[in-house]
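SAMPLE LOG
Freezer: B-3
Tube label: C17
Construct: single chain, 100 aa
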Amino acid sequence: MKAWIFAAAALCLTSCSSKPSEAEARQALADLMAQSASAPVITIEGFTLTGCKKADDTDGHRCDTRGTVVLDMAGNRVPLPVGKNLRYAKVDGTWRAYAQ
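STRUCTURE (predicted):
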């Protein structure tokens, strides 16, 4: 029984301390942009995720995020370049991106 509890705790620590995959971070960025711009995301072009480090001041990881988010604003394709260090954290099993 103790071995099972130890294994579960170790698994949680391992998975909780890992950074998001590129696909998870891309989806988190798309969700953040759709929410903040109040417009659907058509695509994200040239997405890169580099320099991920565990956040010192809060949960998650801070990663340098670059790419161009293309939004649909009233039928127009509006490209918004992104070049920021974003924080990514898991909330209810889903990765979320935070600008702060």
